[in-house]
Amino acid sequence: MSTDARSSTSSAELAKTLASTLEGLQGLEERITAIRAAIPGRIVFSTSLGIEDQVILDAIASSGAEIDVLTLDTGRHFPETLETIRDSELKYGLKIQVVSPDKGDVDGLVARDGVFGFRNAVENRIACCDVRKVRPLNRALEGADGWITGMRRAQSQGRGETPFATFEEAQGLVKTNPLADWSLERVEAVVKTKSVPVNALHARGYPSIGCQPCTRAIQPGEDIRAGRWWWENEDGKECGLHNRPKPVSQKEDASS
Ligand code: SF4
């Protein structure tokens, strides 16, 4: 077995053990501490500045865990989202690294598809998310051993099987979702109790906030992510940052 294969196997084992550990812990701060203790090397928390990620940021700050915090500035954010960066840095006294897309990539995309080209075809939309989100994130994750996200199973049907931890072979790191089993009500309760700063748009009917031209408010009863790329079919509505999650057991089956 090659060194790379050995290291992939041990990282997959680490992810499996960590998933079980996280499932057994209830508190978010405990889960963040467990992630930090289990994964050696650099851990990155990529925040979209949405309500879930703000709760994770609060837990990272309270735990004092050494975790790099970054956000992707796609160039198409709502002003309220940028204000959330400022409010968070002030509240927690930490720095959120702002990662921008490659200017040449953006210029090429806009020259080819136009400023609102992402509405003309799903392929265009995926290309825009790739240039403005996926490539910058992959650059920011280079050399990292762990990645924390705010994904929850209850956010959408497509996220219904979000695991606590998986080994992401393509990026060579352990991806963790410490809020996987949390309800929105539980997230909101923490925001209230701990005065966590949140994006002002949440109070105006935007439970899930992405880029301004690709996000609308939702109606009562709609899926939490119904306001994202609302002109597309429900099934493919991810930007490419997160592959459709599979539970650890399915991943093992697939690789055996
Ligand atoms: S959400 Fe919309 S504007 Fe933002 S990167 Fe994706 S397609 Fe482009």
Supply database-style keywords.
binds iron/sulfur cluster; 8 helices; 6 strands; six-stranded mixed sheet; alpha/beta; 256 residues
In words, what does this structure look like?
This protein is of the alpha/beta class and 256 residues long. It contains 8 helices and 6 strands, in the order H-H-E-H-E-H-E-H-H-E-E-E-H-H. It has a single domain, classed as Rossmann fold (3-Layer(aba) Sandwich). It has a 6-stranded mixed sheet, sandwiched between helices. Helix 2 crosses helix 3 and helix 5 runs antiparallel to helix 6. It starts with a helix and ends with a helix. The C terminus is likely disordered.
Q: Beta fraction of the residues?
A: 5-15%
- CATH fold-level name: Rossmann fold
Please tally the helical runs, counting DSSP H or I stretches of 4 or more residues.
8
Q: What does the overall shape look like?
A: globular
Kindly report the oligomeric state of this protein: single chain
Radius of gyration: 18 Å
Going by helix content, strand content and strand pairing, the class is alpha/beta
CATH class: Alpha Beta
Strand order of the largest sheet: 3-2-1-4-6-5
Write a short abstract of this structure.
By secondary structure, the protein is α/β, with parallel strands linked by helices. The chain has helices at residues 3-24, 28-38, 51-63, 79-92, 103-113, 122-141, 184-194, 248-255; strands at residues 43-46, 68-72, 97-99, 146-148, 165-168, 173-176.
Secondary-structure topology with pairs:
Blueprint: H1 3-24, H2 28-38, E1 43-46, H3 51-63, E2 68-72, H4 79-92, E3 97-99, H5 103-113, H6 122-141, E4 146-148, E5 165-168, E6 173-176, H7 184-194, H8 248-255
Parallel strand pairs: 1-2, 1-4, 2-3, 4-6
Antiparallel strand pairs: 5-6
Helix pairs in contact: 1-2, 2-3, 3-7, 5-6
This protein binds iron/sulfur cluster.
Iron/sulfur cluster (SF4) is lined by residues 74, 76, 118, 125, 128-129, 132-133, 210-211, 213-214, 239.
